[in-house]
């Protein structure tokens, strides 16, 4: 009888506590927005449908950024005035002050509409281009980099959609929700702005899954781009890349073209551009493709006066990765390092904003010496540290990190 009485008392107390919690939740302002209501959404739409017209490629492209929110989570977006963006219109208050645009986002969201020019030249060629048959550009250029003022505990979700001519297709580094419609997720950003390379138009695309990475190689049809050769080389090198960089992206996009594009290569988040005329392996044993893969794998960059760290490390590891993947023999690897050393002997100072040619070759020798000084295990440990997100890498920070890994002074890093 006592146990029965105690049982009923416990049930009554638990019921009473639940009722108090329910009443408090209904009265508390902090619970006015549930967990689902703490999310605001960006829907970005870019209209390429006029690009097939004769003069359409020179026009700026209409972009619509629509914000949806059930409470006033996103309050303001601000971005620098830039000549590539024009004709801004928005719901709510939009104004220019101190060289910036400021958009006061309405409480329940609204639309921002503008025009973007994607043709960017490098001398007589382009590193971003829109033609009547295809387009090749960085997704970063679609939306200006903006500072946001938001409620502290809120989060964003973004989708990107392209409106294309009937014969066009699209490829990005993001998963496709539906045709030409992509989901963008970057937990580190309050505004999930799209990044990485994009290619649109009449395309030929080769795909494969390599070492847990979904790889796509794309180029406009009719251009001399060896998609299958690129995919084949990635097939035997990406597994080694992932050994060195376990956090390498699980999706990789390689875009290419030849028609009036800049004759080089450029990396981006989860993607890279490689001109169709670039050899996969040069006569000196280096590989532009692997060089850019290292840049894709690295999640932080060097300081402005230490570009030799970015470029020298990428060039040295490209040789290491090619050698360890079986692409070049140990003898060719040694010969390639000797050639780099001879080329860089004339360079007295590495510190600069842009490391090229002989300066990068000298930096290759620095990292080769550092590899020998640390030993393979410690050097790999250092590379893992450098690949993590963190502050930009200066020569002093490189030395500090190397000495921490080695637990002793390091001689091979220049002052």
What can you tell me about this protein's structure?
31% of the residues lie in helices and 29% in strands. The protein is an alpha+beta fold and 415 residues long. Among the domains are: 166 residues, Immunoglobulin-like, CATH 2.60.40.3650; 118 residues, no CATH class. It starts with a helix and ends in a 9-residue tail after the last helix. Keywords: Signal.
Portion of residues in beta strands equals: 25-35%
User: What does the average pLDDT come to?
Assistant: 89
Gyration radius, rounded: 26 Å
Largest sheet: 7 strands, mixed
Q: What is the N-to-C succession of helices and strands?
A: HEEEEEEEEEEEEEEEEEEHEEEHHHHHH
Tell me, briefly, the overall form.
Answer: globular
Layout of helices and strands:
Elements: H1 2-27, E1 39-47, E2 61-68, E3 74-80, E4 85-90, E5 93-97, E6 100-104, E7 109-116, E8 120-122, E9 125-130, E10 134-138, E11 147-150, E12 155-163, E13 169-171, E14 176-178, E15 181-184, E16 197-201, E17 203-210, E18 213-220, H2 227-244, E19 251-255, E20 265-268, E21 271-274, H3 288-297, H4 307-324, H5 330-344, H6 357-374, H7 376-387, H8 395-406
Parallel strand pairs: 1-12, 18-19, 19-21
Antiparallel strand pairs: 1-2, 2-7, 3-6, 3-11, 4-7, 5-6, 8-9, 9-10, 10-16, 12-15, 13-16, 14-15, 17-18, 20-21
Helix pairs in contact: 3-4, 4-5, 4-6, 5-6, 6-7, 7-8
Signal peptide: 1-23
Keywords: Signal
Index terms:
single chain; 415 residues; Immunoglobulin-like; 31% helix; five-stranded antiparallel beta sheet; alpha+beta; 8 helices; 29% strand; seven-stranded mixed beta sheet; disordered N terminus
């Amino acid at each position: 009888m006592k146990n029965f009485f105690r049982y009923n008392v416990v049930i009554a107390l638990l019921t009473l506590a639940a009722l108090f919690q329910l009443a408090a939740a209904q009265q508390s302002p902090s619970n006015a927005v549930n967990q689902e209501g703490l999310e605001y959404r960006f829907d970005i739409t870019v209209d390429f449908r006029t690009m097939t017209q004769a003069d359409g490629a020179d026009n700026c492209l209409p972009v619509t950024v629509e914000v949806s929110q059930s409470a006033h989570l996103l309050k303001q977006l601000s971005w620098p005035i830039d000549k590539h963006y024009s004709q801004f219109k928005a719901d709510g208050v939009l104004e220019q002050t101190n060289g910036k645009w400021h958009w006061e986002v309405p409480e329940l969201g609204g639309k921002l509409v503008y025009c973007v020019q994607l043709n960017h030249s490098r001398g007589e060629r382009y590193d971003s281009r829109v033609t009547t048959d295809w387009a090749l550009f960085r997704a970063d250029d679609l939306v200006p980099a903006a500072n946001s003022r938001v409620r502290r505990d809120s989060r964003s979700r973004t989708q990107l959609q392209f409106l294309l001519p009937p014969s066009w297709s699209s490829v990005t580094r993001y998963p496709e929700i539906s045709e030409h419609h992509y989901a963008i997720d970057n937990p580190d950003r309050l505004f999930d702005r799209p990044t990485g390379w994009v290619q649109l138009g009449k395309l030929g695309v080769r795909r494969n899954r390599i070492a847990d990475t979904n790889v796509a190689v794309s180029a406009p049809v009719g251009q001399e781009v060896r998609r299958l050769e690129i995919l084949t080389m990635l097939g035997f090198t990406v597994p080694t890349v992932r050994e060195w960089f376990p956090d390498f992206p699980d999706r990789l996009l390689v875009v290419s073209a030849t028609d009036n594009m800049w004759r080089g290569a450029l990396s981006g988040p989860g993607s890279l551009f490689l001109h169709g005329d670039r050899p996969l392996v040069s006569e000196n044993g280096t590989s532009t493709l692997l060089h850019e893969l290292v840049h894709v794998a690295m999640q932080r960059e060097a300081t402005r006066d230490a570009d030799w760290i970015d470029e020298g490390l990428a060039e040295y590891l490209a040789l290491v990765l090619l050698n360890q993947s079986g692409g070049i023999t140990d003898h060719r690897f040694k010969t390639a390092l000797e050639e780099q050393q001879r080329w860089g002997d004339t360079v007295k100072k590495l510190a600069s904003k842009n490391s090229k040619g002989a300066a990068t070759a000298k930096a290759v020798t620095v990292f080769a010496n550092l590899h020998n000084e640390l030993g393979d295990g410690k050097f790999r440990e250092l590379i893992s540290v450098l690949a993590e997100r963190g502050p930009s890498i200066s020569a002093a920070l490189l030395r500090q990190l190397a000495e921490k890994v080695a637990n002793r002074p390091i001689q091979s890093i220049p002052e």
